Amino acid sequence: MTVEPVVRVAHDRAITTLTLDSPVNRNALSAALVGELADGLTRCGKDRDVRAVVLAHTGNTFCAGADLRDPPHPDALVALLRQIVELHKPVVARVTGHVRAGGLGLLGACDLAIASKEATFAFTEVRIGVAPAVISLPLLPRTDPRALARYYLTGERFDAAEAVRTGLLTATGDDVDVTLDPVLDGLRRASPQGLAETKRLLTARVLEAFDRDADALTALSAELFSSAQAREGMTAFLERRDPAWVV
């Protein structure tokens, strides 16, 4: 039986678009999606015709976070986030839908993130008994700490304007492509060497966080996901009910 890909690839004028295409689980970070996305980024890194990468999605959800039925190993997620940060070509997120939990880690790892005004965001980890551990590697160096404290601790939903204010997004607009077009035009006008060295400057602090904290946060993530509270939280989520601790 042929297995349909969950990441689609398209190329236009030096820009390769990798589209998350797993509508059955709202583009959640399954082992398959993480693997295919990593493979796509590797090919883009080796292809001299690729100036930059756009990370897009089908459906109304950019990424719903970790796939609770087929989660990737924390090491694989760390490797994917680091791969986005280390890629010597800019990676731009194009968001027209909702982003939750681990999906926000993808946004944090991208160099630029453009979203429509309809997009919504939430760090929902605390509501299922875990913490945004691994995804903090790209997020903490790049986003407003007071805002992260609020949204990490409460799991509240926030809009695209707030995401721009906190540094999670680069820009938002009524039409995401109208907002994105001048960004892509600028990347097409930039030299490959100039882009690579400029990105190296911009990502230095993020990579320091990976070098310093990746092992500890990977271990924390694995410990939390195997805990009794996480089992209750994930079961409640799948059964569409409140977990036992809700008062």
From TrEMBL:
UniProt-listed Pfam families: ECH_1
Organism of origin: Streptomyces olivochromogenes
UniProt KW keywords: Lyase
Entry's EC annotation: 4.2.1.17
Keyword Lyase annotated: yes
Keyword Lyase part of the UniProt annotation: yes
InterPro entries: ClpP/crotonase-like_dom_sf, Enoyl-CoA_hydra/iso, Enoyl-CoA_hydra_C, Enoyl-CoA_Hydratase/Isomerase
Family membership noted in the UniProt record: Belongs to the enoyl-CoA hydratase/isomerase family.
Listed name of the protein: Enoyl-CoA hydratase
Signal peptide: none
GO molecular function: enoyl-CoA hydratase activity
